[in-house]
Amino acid sequence: MFYKALMRPWLFQTDPEAAHERALTLAASLGRCRITRDAVETAFAFEDRRLRQTVFGIEFPNPVGLAAGYDKNAIGLELWPALGFGFAEIGSVTLCSQPGTKPPRIFRQVGQRSLINCMGFHNDGAEAIAARIPPQPHLIPVGVNVGKNNDVDLAHAGENYAATIDKFRDRADFFVINVSSPSTPGLRKLQDKEMLDELLGRVAGLRTTAPVLLKIAPDLTFDQIDDAVGLVERHKLAGVVATNTTLDHSTPTWGGLSGAPLRARATECVRHIRRQTRGRLPIVGVGGIFTAEDAYEKIRAGACLVEVWTGMIYEGPFIVHNINHGLLRLLARDGFGSMADAVGTE
């Protein structure tokens, strides 16, 4: 209530990107101080053995993670476990630093509880970001979302992705290959079957023991999703993140839409992948998650894990605690003894 009544109105009076940077700066400050970090953990963190799962060989304390795009540069990494997150996905990270698109590049759609962003993979670069992530083991699993530098030709994308992954060999618990951001010119062409086959083949050939997942766009047809998932299985990747932001919006603003309007389509994609793979492939569900019911919908549809981004902007830092507490209530209501028991039981 404090966030929605006081903090959010204040933050929403300022430019969205400036407000976001303020929030990250505060997160970094709180995370660096042991006293404040412990106080945050006491207020926000929530643990229960029924929420624990082992997914693609990694133990997750709960299924709610921070989605890529929120903490691109690993600024708040020390605070995310204290807020109760079960994992955090950093990035998108590119091999070389780049400024992204020209501001303004984040737009609130308050009536829809959504955001439109056209950031263009702005980040500090792989070497600088890797230096901010401590060596393993981590308090919670840390994933690195990997993108392509804007000035790298699509024909050389595989080399670019591979070189970025190499920078995080002893830092990342898992990797996510991002070929689905709508704000990087030409990037989504890498989802075409032949180009994706070549890219995933290059990534699969790396000597990394960390699991690698593929993040797909919600704008793909089911046939295109089937092609992508088939390649994920052929190249023995660990799973799929469904989904990125969508270009399917009626606003004149260019960029990808996230938040409540994406919820149903993202869940459809999760459901389709689960059915097509018959549960063989772990799925991370993303898109429009604000409540425990939203998260549970994706879990019952087939997601082992879920991530929030826009929900953090609208609901505030208690969103993780509220979702995890609500998930336990929903599990008990439906007679499930653990989160893993509920996955794909729709």
How are the secondary structure elements laid out?
Blueprint: H1 2-11, H2 16-32, H3 34-44, E1 53-55, E2 58-60, E3 64-66, E4 87-93, E5 106-109, E6 114-117, H4 126-132, E7 142-146, H5 157-166, E8 174-178, H6 193-204, E9 212-216, H7 222-234, E10 239-242, E11 256-259, H8 263-277, E12 283-286, H9 292-301, E13 305-308, H10 310-315, H11 319-334, H12 339-342
Parallel strand pairs: 3-4, 3-13, 4-7, 7-8, 8-9, 9-10, 10-12, 12-13
Antiparallel strand pairs: 1-2, 5-6, 6-11
Summary of the model, kept short:
The protein is an alpha/beta fold. The chain has helices spanning 2-11, 16-32, 34-44, 126-132, 157-166, 193-204, 222-234, 263-277, 292-301, 310-315, 319-334, 339-342; strands at 53-55, 58-60, 64-66, 87-93, 106-109, 114-117, 142-146, 174-178, 212-216, 239-242, 256-259, 283-286, 305-308. It is built from 12 helices and 13 strands.
